[in-house]
Amino acid sequence: MTFRELNLKEEILSAIEELGYENPMPVQELSIPFMLEKTADLVALAQTGTGKTAAFGLPVLNLINAQTKQVQALVLSPTRELCIQIANDLKGYSKNIRGLKVVAVYGGEDIRVQLRQLDTAPQIIVATPGRLIDLIERGKVELGAVDFLVLDEADEMLNMGFKEDIETILERTPESRRTMLFSATMPKEIANIAKRYMKNYEEITVGTKNAGSENVEHIYYVSQAKQRYLVLKRIVDLNPDIYGIVFCRTRMETKEVADKLMHDGYNADALHGDLSQAQRDTVMQKFRNRNIQLLVATDVAARGLDVSDLTHVINYNLPDDVEIYTHRSGRTGRANKKGIAVTIIHSKERFKIKDIERMLRKTFTQEQIPNGLEVCKKQLFHLIDRMENVEVSEEQIETYMPQIMTQLEYLSKEELLKRFVSLEFNRFLSYYKNTEDLNLPERSERGERGERGERGERGPKPGGRVRLKMNVGEREGVDAKRLLGIINDVTNDKSINIGAIEVTNKFTFFDVFPDQLDQVMTAFAGQTDVIVSEAKGSKSFDDRKSDYRPRSGGSSDRRSSGGSGGGYRGGDRGDRGASSRPAASGGDKPWRNRELSDRSSRPSGGSDRRSSGGSSSGSGYKKRY
Ligand code: AMP
User: Fold this and answer.
1) Ligand 1 in reach of 441 Cβ (< 6 A)
2) Above 90 in pLDDT, residue 360?
3) Gap from CA of 154 to ligand 1 centroid (Å)
4) Rounded to the nearest whole angstrom, what is the distance from the C-alpha of residue 32 to the centroid of ligand 1?
5) The dihedral sign for the CA sequence 117, 123, 129, 135
6) Terminal CA-to-CA distance of the chain, rounded, Å?
7) Ligand 1 in reach of 336 Cβ (< 6 A)
8) Which atom of ligand 1 is nearest to 46's Cα?
């Protein structure tokens, strides 16, 4: 279908053509003919990003009389941001209609500016409810000639406590008006408003009711609650190009998480209610321009923010309300792009995931929290990709090339590459060298004590493994790699299987299999500088680091460092570790702080929000846990 087939005026067709709109989006295909050909009201279940502004804007512009200087259409929207955006869109659609004026009025801006704009006698006002009431009370806005009333993001307006204001405004407009209500969800309160104030309305749904956007993949990670932040970092590190919002429950948590991320060198900032309007505007602008990669926000503060091309939405905590989950996740997967909604939960929250799955009729996938090795590999190849695609400014570099060539002449291509890659990559490796497995052991998820469960465990290991204790630890420079080297050296046998390894400041604990226990104990019995004994009463593993152990040439996708799987075969240990002291720790700051220039030079795709086609959400439910 084309816009021309929808019988829109020439002035409108030419404007949208200039904007590059080729075909109507699904919600427009439904709403435009409805508004132009029928007389009833309309309730549309559609999220932002589905083209709803044009869905109400185009027919309204088509129907009002630009020669009459009265307010004929009123659009109510929850936030100042959205007001500005809708007004700008409407101005774009109507730029070829002579005499047509659109004015936006919203809180948080000097009312005098808006009073002056209202003097231009607009036919369309886009407003937040509170400010509009203020202007009505000042006698500056008269709604007696309103033919079209649009309630945009009606559910958000109710969430923000505008119910009474909306009702006041509705009562100020003529009963003969036509009302269009747009909402991403359909809680009871919205249905009540529709019933009370709208006449024989028809309901249209873009996509499936109750469903989040079709383009959104829902995944979750299960971890201990206190490790949420570490899990968040892993998720972010596994997605070097992430551009997303991290949703927190409270202002306090928002601040904490954002501060930690910034401290750890991530390109993040916070958006919450304690910030002034000016501060919020600055943060939002930076995020929109992609100068900030991760925005940590509360639901309320993020309401005003409309960004279409988020790669991820991260639920640092599950929201209490399924609708909030829908809203959050609907912020990604817009404009026909794929999006990922990630949730970090602890084991007792699985039932909540099940609830949301049922409500949204979507399947959520549990993913394993990536281990250090996986993250390093991902980051490495991201670096390689960047290097492959970097723009080389030949002219600038040319001057220095002869000197560089002479200086590096003696290095082979392989050596050169190794060195360049190491410049950046060493930091990743040293940070992730000693990181623990953050996945909950399966058995402890079921409430039993897992292999490395909440309380750790003592004595013989499940599956018959035996935990041994060595009297040297981090203090003496031992790490997993070095331990394997020591075992190789002392036993003179590279085929010893080693299970979980735990390095504490003073001691190193490791698991061996019963069939090799004697061999190991006998070999160490002859040692005087390291003493190995069976671990009795070893403390909980909970807070300690369990090393990720790289295996040269081995599989890189081993998830659990302490997994109940095969353990580590000594034969794979390429190095004899004893001589290689661990590198200095990366400290709290990993390798981040990647250049902003890199990010800003990415193809933005930014404002080019296109159809997400059948995405929508909405429901008659409102579920609280
Ligand atoms: P909205 O849901 O109104 O926020 O619109 C989402 C994005 O899609 C906006 O950037 C619009 O400019 C864009 N858009 C709306 N209608 C169309 C269309 N028919 N074709 C292409 N882009 C559109």
Assistant:
1) no
2) no
3) 19
4) 14
5) positive
6) 44
7) no
8) 2
Residue 53 CB–ligand 1 contact under 6 Å: yes
Contacts of 192 (CB under 8 A, 6+ apart): none
DSSP per-residue string spanning 501-560? EEE-SS-EEEEE-HHHHHHHHHHHHT-SSS-EEE--SPPPSTTS-------TTS-S----
Is residue 533 within 8 Å of 527, Cβ to Cβ?
A: no
Residue 106 near ligand 1, beta carbon < 6 Å? no
In the block, tokens 């993040």 appear at 268
- Ligand 1 midpoint to CA 335 (Å): 8
Q: How many CB atoms lie within 10 A of CB 620?
A: 12
Reply yes or no on whether the pLDDT at 15 is more than 50: yes
Q: pLDDT-based confidence at 342, cuts 50/70/90?
A: very high
Pair of tokens at residue 46 = 């559609």
Q: Is 59 in the pocket of ligand 1 (CB under 6 A)?
A: no
Residue nearest to atom 18 of ligand 1 (CA): 21
Beta bridge partners, 341, equal: 218, 313
> What is the reported pLDDT for 73?
98
- Is residue 21 lining ligand 1, measured as CB closer than 6 Å? yes
Q: Using an 8 Å Cβ cutoff, are 474 and 504 in contact?
A: yes
pLDDT at 524: 85
CA 545 to chain centre: 27
What is the per-residue pLDDT for 449? 34
Q: Length of the chain in residues, anyone?
A: 625
Does the C-beta of 25 come closer than 6 Å to ligand 1? yes
Rounded to the nearest 10 degrees, the angle between the axes of helix 80-93 and helix 52-63 is: 50
- With contact defined as beta carbons under 8 Å apart, do 512 and 484 qualify? no
Q: Could you tell me which CATH number the domain at 3-205 has?
A: 3.40.50.300
Q: Is 49 in the pocket of ligand 1 (CB under 6 A)?
A: yes
CA of 100 to the centre of ligand 1 (A): 21
Q: For residue 341, which phi and psi values (nearest 5 degrees)?
A: -105, 120
CA of 47, closest atom in ligand 1: 2
Q: Residue 336's pLDDT band (boundaries 50, 70, 90)?
A: low
* Residues 471/460, Cβ–Cβ less than 8 Å: no
Architecture of domain 216-371: 3-Layer(aba) Sandwich (3.40)
Ligand 1 atom 10, closest CA: 609
Nearest alpha carbon to residue 298 among 310, 279, 315, 278:
315
CA of 596 to the centre of ligand 1 (A): 29
Write the Ramachandran bin of 613: left for phi over 0, alpha for psi from -120 to 50, otherwise beta.
left
Residues 342, 313 contacting (CB under 8 angstroms)? yes
Looking from the CA of residue 20, the nearest atom of ligand 1 is: 21
To which residue do tokens 């709403």 refer? 31
pLDDT at 326: 86
If you take atom 20 of ligand 1, which residue's CA is the nearest one?
Answer: 21
Tell me if domain 216-371 and domain 466-624 are identical in fold. Answer: no
Q: Which of 215-224, 358-367, 487-496, 595-604 tops mean pLDDT?
A: 215-224
In this structure, how many other beta carbons lie within 10 angstroms of the beta carbon of residue 209? 16
Domain boundary assignment for the chain? 3-205, 216-371, 373-389+399-432, 466-624
* CATH T-level assignment (fold) for domain 466-624: Alpha-Beta Plaits (3.30.70)
Q: How far is it, in rounded angstroms, from Cα 402 to Cα 420?
A: 18
Structure tokens at 426: 């060493």
